[in-house]
Amino acid sequence: MKLWRAFVLMWLAMTLAGCGINTIPTYDEQVKAAWAQVQNQYQRRADLVPNLVNTVQGFADQEREVLVEVTEARAKVGSIQAGEDILDDPEKFKQFEQAQGQLGSALQRLMVVVERYPDLKSNQNFLALQSQLEGTENRIAVARRDYIEAVRQYNTEIRTFPGRIWHSLLYSELEQRENFEATTENAEQAPTVNFE
Q1: Does the pTM exceed 0.70?
Q2: pLDDT at residue 193 greater than cutoff 60
Q3: Which of 113-117's residues contact partners 24+ apart within 8 Å by CB, and which partners?
Q4: Neighbouring residues of 63: CB distance < 8 A, sequence distance ≥ 6
Q5: Which range is the signal sequence, renumbered to this chain (predicted)?
Q6: Taking the CA of residue 53 as centre, how many other CA atoms within 13 Å lie in the half-sphere pointing to its CB?
Q7: How far apart, in whole angstroms, are the C-alpha atoms of residue 151 and residue 162?
Q8: Which residues touch 72 (CB under 8 Å, ≥6 apart)?
Q9: Residue 185: which pLDDT band, with cuts at 50, 70 and 90?
Q10: What does the longest C-alpha to C-alpha distance in the chain come to?
Q11: Residue 195: predicted pLDDT
Q12: Helix (H, G, I), strand (E, B) or coil at 7
């Protein structure tokens, strides 16, 4: 009889292990890891901004308004605590994304200012910083894409069979995750380029 119980318990354990009982926490951890990578790239950008501003400032003292805007946007980004708890608070998540959007917009305006200063564009320090910043923006886009995919996979799992069953039985405290939304007004429209 003991042998029979051991066999049934082993069979039950193997069946449960193969039926997706661990899928939800695995996907939840993937969402958290993807979000940590997004934060990592945002931090990289925030670390580069002061160096870029200082380099440009030496050449463009009269463009203080744009430089102040970039500095203030960076400070606003830095003031928002973006730990894992932000994933569970849609309002904090939206505020964080809006602050990041404002910083990105301010950096774009800074690059327009740079076009007015040919000496700055040829400065090696500026070129290196600009290249790093462009690379960082690309990394942010990739990290966001990976986060969006992790959220899609997680949310799909907890809303479909058999994940829905495991979610209701074992993981009901895990909520659906928020995804990125465009924070820039009219982001769906292509920008107009005018060389007049």
Answers
A1: no
A2: no
A3: 113/56, 113/60, 113/63, 113/66, 114/56, 114/60, 116/60, 116/63, 117/56, 117/59, 117/60
A4: 56, 113, 116
A5: 1-17
A6: 20
A7: 18
A8: 106
A9: low
A10: 89
A11: 36
A12: helix
